[in-house]
Amino acid sequence: MVPLRNILVHGYLEVNQEEVYSFLQKRLKEFDAFAKAILIFLKQLKS
Fold first, then answer.
1. Model-level pTM?
2. How many domains does one find in the chain?
3. What is the pLDDT of residues 1-24, one digit of tens each?
4. 44 burial class (0-12, 13-18, 19+ CB within 10 angstroms)?
5. Rounded CA gap, 7 and 9, in Å?
6. Which residues neighbour 7 within 8 Å (Cβ) at sequence distance 6 or greater?
């Protein structure tokens, strides 16, 4: 997940939609866990 995040957030490389799609197809469970962690963090901010 970190390599994809670095590309998207820091713009190290031009974002290639095909690469993003391929990454998510192969590692969707990681993305799901990442999204859940973000939701937990955001809920903590509201508290």
1. 0.47
2. 1
3. 677 777 677 766 677 788 888 888
4. exposed
5. 6
6. 13, 15
